[in-house]
Amino acid sequence: MSEFAADTVAETAAEVEGTSGFTVSLENFDGPFDLLLGLIAKRQMDVTAVALAAVTDEFVAYVRRLSAEAGAEEGYFSPQALDESSNFILVAATLLDLKAAQLLPSGEVESEEDIAALEARDLLFARLLQYRAFKEIASQVQATFDENSGRHPRQPGTDPQLAGLLPELVWRTSPEDLRAIAEKAFARPAMEPDDVRLEHLHAPVVTVREEMATMTVRLRDTGTLTFSELVRDAESRLVVVVRFLGLLELFRDRDVELRQYSPLGELTVSWAGSDQGETEAAERAAAEWDDELEEHDG
């Protein structure tokens, strides 16, 4: 360890007697474990002379005794035993690393590896001091909690001067009146449902015969049209449907030819009937469609 690190260890090592109940009994030391750590930190005892295996065995027996005294079930640790076990594992690991570092050969430093090893040993001493500092701070915080555990915030009531400004509540409603008010508030008045009148709603009359005549005139004049062109001037969806029905009747009577060059593609309509008048079959079919549409609307 460097001279600066040794001086720091000697100056900052705190009094450790009585901070933990764990004591060790070794050939070269008999007393509290915290005192042993303090002696190692002050370099008053060589860590290589400490039998860490014996210390570990005594600590295991110590935590078992703590758990038994706290009433913990066999195989389980009490909260205090768990806390002390966590602290001991950290310290034991630090002592083990420190003991390994002390076994490095001493003498002149000849390589960067030796310098790194010495610096690592100093860091291990610093970790030991850091553990001691955290443990002492934790003890001070716990003492502060214990000192103030009996204090409770006061819940003040209304200031007497302000309490006098509030008017006294006078209850004049009887239970029967309160019940009547509640029934009136929660009662649902009987309401007759409004009649929905449909006289103002009407759809323009569209007949298959009229739409067939319209398409017939256009197809005779042009010869070929697409279905989109035939329904381009349709005022509503109903007109489109009626024209499609009329187109099917014309196709059934072989007055028109239908072509579709691709799936879901545009439908092309070509006129193939006579140039004058309508066939009797087309008129009869249109009349049947008109009758069905009237029945549906009715």
From TrEMBL:
Residues 288-298 have a biased composition (Acidic residues). PANTHER family: SEGREGATION AND CONDENSATION PROTEIN A (PTHR33969). It comes from Nesterenkonia xinjiangensis. One of its GO terms (biological process) is chromosome segregation. This is Segregation and condensation protein A. InterPro entries: ScpA, ScpA-like_C. It comes from the Bacteria. It holds the Pfam family SMC_ScpA. Residues 272-298 are annotated as: Disordered. Gene3D superfamilies: 6.10.250.2410, Structural maintenance of chromosome 1. Chain E. Keywords: Chromosome partition.
